[in-house]
Amino acid sequence: MKCFIYARKSTESEDRQVLSIDAQIKELEAVALKQGLNVVDVFHESRSAKSPGRPVFNDLMDQLKKSEDTGILCWKTDRLARNPADMSNLILTLEEGDIKEIVTPHRRYKNTSEDKMMLAFELIFAKKYSDDLSDNVKRGNRAKLDKGILPGRAPLGYLNDEEERTIVKDPDRFHLVRKIWDVILSGNYNVDELLRTAEEDWGLTTRPSKKKCGKVLTRSALYQMLARPFYYGAILRNGVLYPGSHEPMITKQEFDQVQKMLRRPIAKRAPRNFAYTGMIKCGECGGMITAEERVNYKGYRYVYYHCTKRKDGHANRCKQKHLRVEKLEEQIQLFLESIYLPEQHVAWALEQIRSVKKDEQKLHEKAVNSVKKAIGVHETKLRSLLDLRLKELIDDDEYKQQKTDITAKKIGLEEKLTEMESNPMIWFEPSERLLLFLTLAKENFTKGQDGLKREILETIGSKLILKDKKLLITARKPFRLIAENAGSPLGWGLLDRVRTFFADPSRHFHIPVLKR
Hints:
This protein is an alpha/beta fold. Helices cover 49% and strands 14% of the residues. A hairpin with a 4-residue loop joins strand 6 and strand 7 (166-169).
C-alpha cells in the first residue's frame, strides 16, 4: 500500500514526552519497511493540533483526495487531530475511501465500524486529555496568584524553589541585579557601559537551563527587567496587579523613579477606575451602567452610577436616575448579609466535608485498585489470546474479533482509571473556598478597596441589573442555595447540595482567598 508519512510536534507541555519530528520520521520509515508500505511523501510541521488550520495537515488531506489507495502513516493518532473539526474530517475522509488506511506502529485503522469507533475514541480521548491539561494549568496559575506566587520561571535575580513551590532570592545574582537598579537610580550611567560592566566585571549572566548555558544580559532584556513590578513585590498578570509573597528587591518609590527616568508612565498618572463599571446593566433600556466622580460646591467629592444612555438625544433618553455609590454598596452588603455564615458554622461545615473527603478517599482507593486489577485481567487475556493464535488454536478472524473486544474494554478501563486518578476529590477545594468566602466576604467588602469589592461581586454572580435605584443580583447557584436557606440551621443536606454542585468540573468558578 502507498502511504504518506505525517509527523507533528508542538512546543506545548503535553508534547514534551513525544518523539522529535526527525525521530518520528526515522521510526515511521522503519515501520513502513517492516510492513511493506511504499512511502510516497513525508509531511511534517511544528504546530499545535488544538484548533483547525494547520497548513501542512490541510495539504496532506488535499493530496489524499487526489491520490488513490493511499494511507497515512503516523506515530500516534493524536498527531493527526486534537480538535473536533479535524477529527470529523479525518473519519469522514476514511469513510469515503479517500484514506485507504491510517497506520501507526501499534495498529491499523480501516473503513470498518470497529476501526472507526476505536479511531474516534482515541481522538476524543486525546482532545479530552488536552482540555483537562489546559484547565489544570489555568486552575494552578490562579491558585499560585492567590498565594502571591508568580506562575512560571522566576525573573533574573530570583529562583524557583521546586520543593516549597515558591520564589526565593538567587544567592549568585540577587545582589548583582540590585546593583543594576542602584546604577540606574544614580542617574550617572551609560547603558552600553553598564551592560559591559555587568558582563566583564560582575560576571552577571542569565540562569543556565538544562539545555542552554547562561547568556549575557542584552539591552532589550535590561529594559524589560526594569519595567517589571515583580522587583518591588507585585505580580503583573494579564493587566492585573497581584501582591506577591516574595522578598522585594527595591521599593515602589524606587521603581516609580526609574520609570520616570526612562519616561514610562507610572501608576499615579493612570485615570480613575471605578469598582463596578462594565458589570451592571440598566433594567430599563439595557445599556451599561457607568460611573462619574463629581465635586460639589463645598469641595466634597462623590461618585455616582448612571445609565450610559442618559445623555443621548431627548427621544431616546433613559429615564433612570443616578445612584450614589454608597447606596449601591449598601444593597450589595445586604446580599452579603443574606449569605453570611458565622465562623462556628463554617468550622462545623469544614469538619463535615473533611470527614466525607477522608471516607471517599478510602472508597476511591478501593475503586482504583479494582479498576487496576480489571486492567491486569484484560492484559492477561490479550497475552493468552496471542498464545492461542501462535499455537494456531484459533484463526485470524476470531483472533482479531476477540482482540478488538478485549482491547476496547481495556482502553475504556484505562480511561476510567485516568479520570479517577486525575482529581478524585474535585469537589473539595471549591467547597472549602466557598465556605470560607461566606464567612469573610461581608467584612472584606466593608473594609476592602475597590479592586477587592469588585472581585467579591464578580464571584457572587455576573448578571446584575439596576432599575429604580435597586440592584438585582442573579447569583450563582451555590450562593442562591445559601440565601434561600438564610435563617435556617446549616445542615448536611445543604452542604451535600453544594458538594454535588462542585462535583461537576464544568461548574467550577474562581473563588478568591479572603483575609481574616
